[in-house]
Write a structure and sequence with these properties.
Elements: E1 6-14, H1 19-29, E2 33-42, E3 45-53, H2 59-72, E4 76-81, H3 84-92, E5 98-105, H4 110-122, E6 126-132, E7 148-155, H5 161-175, E8 178-183, E9 193-196, H6 207-215, H7 218-229, H8 235-244, H9 252-259, H10 267-276, E10 280-288, H11 289-299, E11 303-312, E12 315-321, H12 327-340, E13 348-352, H13 358-363, E14 366-370, H14 374-379, E15 382-384, H15 392-395, H16 405-408
Parallel strand pairs: 9-10, 9-13, 10-11, 13-14, 14-15
Antiparallel strand pairs: 1-3, 1-4, 2-3, 5-7, 5-8, 6-7, 11-12
Helix pairs in contact: 1-2, 4-5, 6-7, 7-8
Length: 410
């Protein structure tokens, strides 16, 4: 070992103030060159790794001093010699594909983590790092947070990416949690625009169904809505049919519905964070401008596009004004807003639940099917179904420690 120039140093034990400083000072004193360093802390138990190269053929002296210091600070230390070939192979892996896999649910268990890890191994991927994004977990179940999230950083090239995605989707359904699989890149860490569908995404209802109930045609409109969301009929045609059935409804009903819209869990928290960190936000809805403007004003969205109902003598005419905001139009609007804001498409996020959202989910840098229909889940890049809409923050890589109320209110 004394003749080895490259040495991996592993330190484990109770975390103590100044430990890292003491060990790196020894390396500095002997002129050693640090090739890599990493540290983690679980329940005040430290795991520190340092890969170094002795520059003056004095590795024996370095290890002796490190051993004495480790004994003095009551931690375990282990030395592993690394050959030049092994180190070179490790360096060559640097350019390999890197991915982020996020596990999110009301609760995460060993069973879920084990199942995901098995798929990762079967796909010939290696886990580099694991980080918990949600807060520390109290033993008292009543005190636990409403969600749990773990982020895995993996490296390599999947044997079959499509098969892996399908396996993740099946697993998430079976074990009731969400899995996000994203390529790690600078764009993932620099998202700047997020576009939302409105009905059944920002709000927990389809407004057109609410209007139809008041007009006495609820069941007829709901049936058409469901076919449209499932992608069974063309959205524009379904929209025309449903609006026609609303003819004669008094506009005062719209104010009543808007005032009592059931807001999706987590929207307040999500919007506060997005605005705090500088995101541009947009509502791109196949619903109606009246309700979109209500949400825009309430939550401070930067943009809002939806469909305009025609009104005459205080009643709906059964017609609409202008072009329908369908799936194709949503994708066009996302591109347009990104262009106006000078944002690369790879820095955009789109969130929606219906088949008419798929075009914008497909072109966005991160497309998220939120509490979506089965067809949408299967075709979207990511799916979020087990928690509130603020779960998006974890897909963006934010930790609960970053989202502390004191930080948000500062």
């Amino acid at each position: 070992m004394e003749n080895s120039e490259i040495i991996l140093l592993n330190i484990n034990g109770e975390d103590k103030m100044g430990l890292t400083a003491a060990l790196t000072e020894i390396l500095a004193k002997h002129g050693a060159f640090i090739l890599d360093i990493g540290q983690s802390d679980i329940h005040r138990n430290l795991s520190l790794g340092i890969l170094f190269k002795s520059m003056n053929d004095n590795s024996g002296e370095i290890m002796k001093d490190l051993l004495f210091k480790a004994y003095e600070m009551d931690v375990n230390i282990r030395f592993t010699p690394i050959s030049v070939d092994r180190y070179s192979n490790w360096v060559s892996m640097q350019g390999k594909n890197r991915y982020i896999i996020t596990l999110l649910g009301r609760i995460l268990t060993a069973k879920q983590i084990a199942a995901v890890s098995k798929i990762i191994a079967e796909q010939n991927l290696n886990i580099d790092n694991i980080v918990r994004l949600t807060g520390r977990i109290p033993l008292n179940e009543k005190e636990r947070a409403a969600k749990s999230c773990v982020e895995l950083s993996v490296r390599g090239t999947p044997n079959d990416r499509q098969q892996m995605q399908e396996a993740f989707l099946a697993l998430s359904s079976e074990l009731n949690f969400d899995i996000s699989f994203q390529e790690e890149s600078m764009y993932r860490r620099m998202r700047r625009l997020i576009c939302f569908d409105m009905d059944s995404t920002l709000i927990q209802t389809e407004v057109i169904d609410e209007l139809a109930e008041r007009a006495g045609v609820g069941e007829r409109v709901k049936a058409i809505t469901e076919l449209a969301m499932q992608g069974e009929i063309d959205f524009e045609e379904s929209f025309r049919q449903r609006v026609k059935l609303l003819k004669g409804l008094d506009v005062s009903v719209m104010k009543e519905i808007a005032t009592n819209l059931p807001i999706t869990e987590g929207l307040d928290r999500l919007m506060k964070v997005l605005q705090k960190v500088g995101f541009k936000t947009a509502i791109l809805s196949g619903g109606f401008t009246y309700f979109g403007n209500h949400l825009k004003e309430k939550y401070g969205f930067d943009y809002m596009y939806a469909n305009e109902l025609e009104i005459a003598n205080g009643k709906l005419t059964g017609n609409y004004v202008g072009d329908v905001v369908d799936g194709k139009r949503k994708a066009e609007l996302l591109r347009l807003i990104a262009q106006v804001e000078r944002i690369d498409l790879r820095q955009t996020v789109a969130v929606g639940d219906g088949a008419n959202d798929l075009p914008m989910l497909d072109i966005a840098g991160l497309g998220i099917a939120f509490h979506a229909k089965p067809k949408v889940k299967q075709n979207a890049g990511q799916s979020l179904s087990t928690v509130g809409i603020d779960g998006i923050l974890y897909f963006l890589g934010y930790k609960d420690s970053m989202l502390d109320s004191k930080i948000l209110n500062s």
